[in-house]
Specification:
Helix 5 packs antiparallel against helix 7 (208-225), helix 7 (208-225) runs antiparallel to helix 8 and helix 8 (231-247) runs antiparallel to helix 9. The chain has 358 residues and is mostly helical. The chain is globular and about 80 Å long. The protein has helices at 92-96, 105-116, 122-127, 139-154, 163-177, 188-198, 208-225, 231-247, 254-278, 284-326, 336-344, 349-354, and strands at 25-31, 38-44, 49-54, 60-65, 81-82, 89-90. The strands form 3 sheets. The protein has a two-stranded antiparallel sheet with strand order 1-2. A two-stranded antiparallel ribbon has the order 3-4.
Length: 358
């Protein structure tokens, strides 16, 4: 019998047997950057699958394998590495490359090591639930590893946390908690454990919408505090913020997020146009780079404008019943003085204009 999952063993191949299938799994050993233990994690051969569709966090949500027998394998589940000793989880490069460990990694090391000494600490409760003896990673195990990564980052004091890593982990958690496919459904016991641990670790997400909201908070912090940020990256961050604000059901906040994306994109377009006009010596590849950026910003501004119009319409529809209830004793058009009062109460100008008197 040919192996179809890591750790399942391989039968000897005799005469007349079918060729043994190529395994997509690669065991890789590395030293845990927190506790120093040698740990083995599974990686996937990227040559054996093609990412057809990714989510906003870059997680592959739809892939095409070169061999159909591996279609059940979800690359997203293997994106993080995990140490069963100290329960630390992070991107593979953090295990392999010192330069990828962030500015305050020494504080993270100290904080996680302190958690190891407390068996009932949230990190231990989640980490010990990860099934490291299975022959492959289930979605539930991968989700628990994601929560371990989150808890590790959250052990650090707020001013020293890696907010970009936190945003990434919250987006991963949102993907698992919002999974629609039965193959990726989380085990009920995992959800019960999450609810239990959240009592002492409230920064863990309660559901997909909560995870998205927390990711937005981290991404917004990056946009507001970064001293210098590359235009494409800034626009991408604002796009993700607007998209997540909308998808997490916050209709009242979505128009402002979309408008922020739209207005900043227009501002960056104007900056690049002025640059082309002022820097006459900008030629060749340098000029082409700016022109490509301008074209990309144009597409982004169109998408941002369309989203703003759509979410504003959604917000007005959501708000209109409340305005009608507010004006149930009022008859006829809304006078200017009442309109100002309604604006002060938080009603949108667009909703007030849309109002049709009985």
């Amino acid at each position: 019998m040919q192996p179809t999952r890591p750790g399942s063993g391989a039968a000897s191949q005799g005469e007349g047997d079918a060729p043994r299938p190529r395994l997509p799994f690669v065991p890789i050993e590395a030293t845990c950057p927190i506790c120093g233990a040698r740990v083995r994690n599974w990686s996937l051969k990227k040559s054996m699958f093609e990412v057809v569709e990714s989510d906003l966090a870059g997680n592959p949500v739809r892939v095409k394998w070169t061999e159909a027998m591996w279609q059940w394998v979800r690359p997203m589940d293997y994106a993080l590495w995990f140490c069963p000793g100290c329960h630390y989880a992070d991107l593979p490069k953090t295990f392999q490359e010192e330069k990828a460990r962030g500015k305050h990694f020494d504080l993270l090391q100290e904080a996680v090591r302190a958690q190891v000494a407390k068996p009932q600490a949230p990190l231990g409760l989640i980490g010990r639930a990860v099934d490291t003896g299975a022959d492959h990673l289930t979605s539930s195990a991968a989700f628990l590893i994601t929560l371990s990564g989150l808890l590790a980052q959250l052990t650090v004091k707020p001013g020293y946390r890696d907010i970009e890593r936190l945003a990434h982990l919250y987006l991963r958690a949102a993907a698992y908690l919002g999974e629609k496919e039965p193959s990726g459904a989380l085990d009920e016991r995992v959800l019960v454990l999450l609810a239990h641990v959240r009592k002492v670790a409230p920064d863990l997400p309660a559901d997909a919408a909560d995870a998205e909201k927390r990711a937005v908070e981290q991404l917004d912090t990056i946009c507001r505090t970064a001293r210098e940020i590359e235009p494409r990256r800034e626009v991408w961050l604002l796009r993700v913020i607007a998209t997540l604000t909308r998808s997490s059901g916050r209709a009242s906040e979505a128009p402002a997020a979309a408008r922020r994306w739209f207005e900043r994109t227009l501002g960056l377009r104007n900056e690049q146009r002025e640059r082309l006009q002022k820097e006459k010596g900008l030629v060749g590849g340098a000029r082409e780079k700016v022109e490509n950026l301008l074209e990309w910003l144009g597409h982004q501004s169109d998408e941002a404008r369309d989203m703003h119009q759509a979410v504003l319409e959604e917000a007005v529809k959501d708000e209109l019943p409340r305005l009608e209830e507010r004006l149930r004793d009022h008859h006829g058009p809304i006078p200017e003085e009442l309109a100002r009062t309604l604006l002060e109460e938080g009603f949108r100008e667009e909703t007030i204009r849309r109002y049709s008197p009985r």
